[in-house]
């Protein structure tokens, strides 16, 4: 009888062991797959602006071109350089955050003064016309944020809203108070995200498979970067999309600072 019980226990342990090895290997294979795809995407993100700059430079050095065309070429090269810098800066910033070397330079800011400015700069960065951004700020409170980091947050959200817009460039942003938190609701009316994919969207390197969609550039790092920044501010970000073709809403919750309780050394950051 004891041999039977012992055998059974051994069998269960063996099964559990096999299950864990299976889970571990599947995870490892998934991580390796994600990583390999990331390397391909990342290389493409570096190579394509570089190739474009090289082409403009070669054309300019070989052919005589008029001042207007020259100006246009320089403008395009500047755009490509900015694109390159953004990818490299993101990698460096993420690595700093992961190694816990990143110091968020947080200052006390007024929601009403700061957030419209941050959103405006992202809007200008991606050349979105005013009528495409509907912004409602319904909170008089204060939060403690690193402005540069939040600029990255909004730039990533705006960039994605355009990339995955499927032609509808409308963005709705609502900023309001809920309990002790500031809520930023960022909605687009683009391609939406399948329910299953919404669970993985903030994972490092994750990109939704888009075999049925035209090629959209990216590294799968943007939303991971955004989430790490929000976490560094004791906040939370979630995603909701009713489904494919029905748009996407990102919701950020950040702790509001009760200005009456603030430490005397706190100073309101200048704009
Ligand atoms: P990237 O855009 O470089 O692929 P992100 O981390 O920013 O990486 O986003 C991960 C994935 O989430 C994207 O590949 C895309 O499939 C999906 N996604 C992100 N934002 C949106 C959005 N606004 N609408 C639809 N899909 C989105």
Give the tags.
271 residues; alpha+beta; five-stranded mixed β-sheet; two-stranded antiparallel sheet; 6 helices; globular; binds adenosine-5'-diphosphate
Shape: globular
* Average pLDDT level: 90
**β-strand number:** 7
Instruction: Specify the helix fraction band.
Output: 40-55%
**Strands in their spatial order, largest beta sheet:** 2-4-5-7-6
Instruction: State the order of secondary-structure elements, H for helix, E for strand.
Output: HHEHEEHEEHHEE
Uncertain stretches of 5 or more adjacent residues: none
Distance between the termini: 79 Å
Ions and ligands? adenosine-5'-diphosphate
Radius of gyration: 23 Å
Could you characterize what this model shows?
It comes from Caldithrix abyssi DSM 13497. It is an enzyme of class 2 (transferase). Keywords: Kinase, Membrane, Phosphoprotein, Transferase, Transmembrane, Transmembrane helix, Two-component regulatory system. It is a single chain. 51% of the residues lie in helices and 16% in strands. The protein contains 6 helices and 7 strands; from the N terminus they run H-H-E-H-E-E-H-E-E-H-H-E-E. The mean pLDDT is 90. The protein binds adenosine-5'-diphosphate. The site of adenosine-5'-diphosphate (ADP) has 21 residues, from helix 4 and helix 6.
């Amino acid at each position: 009888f004891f041999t039977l019980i012992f055998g059974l226990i051994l069998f269960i342990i063996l099964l559990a062991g096999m299950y864990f090895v299976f889970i571990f290997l599947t995870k490892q294979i998934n991580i390796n797959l994600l990583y390999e795809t990331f390397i391909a995407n990342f290389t493409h993100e570096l190579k394509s602006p570089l190739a474009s700059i090289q082409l403009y430079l070669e054309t300019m050095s070989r052919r005589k071109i008029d001042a207007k065309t020259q100006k246009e070429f320089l403008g395009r090269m500047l755009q490509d350089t900015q694109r390159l810098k953004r990818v490299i800066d993101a990698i460096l910033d993420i690595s700093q955050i992961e190694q816990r070397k990143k110091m968020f330079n947080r200052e006390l800011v007024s929601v009403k003064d700061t957030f419209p400015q941050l959103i405006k700069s992202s809007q200008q960065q991606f050349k979105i016309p005013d009528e495409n951004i509907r912004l409602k700020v319904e909170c008089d409170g204060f939060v403690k944020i690193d402005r540069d980091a939040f600029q990255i947050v909004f730039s990533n959200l705006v960039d994605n809203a355009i990339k995955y817009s499927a032609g509808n460039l409308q963005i709705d942003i609502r900023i309001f108070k809920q309990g002790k938190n500031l809520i930023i609701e960022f909605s687009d009316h683009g391609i939406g995200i399948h329910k299953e994919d919404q669970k993985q969207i903030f994972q490092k390197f994750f990109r939704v498979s888009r075999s049925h969609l035209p090629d959209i550039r990216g590294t799968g790092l943007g939303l991971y970067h955004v989430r790490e920044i929000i976490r560094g501010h004791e906040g939370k970000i979630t995603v909701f999309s009713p489904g494919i073709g029905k748009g996407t809403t990102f919701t950020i919750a950040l702790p509001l600072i009760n200005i009456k309780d603030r430490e005397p050394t706190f100073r309101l950051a200048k704009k």
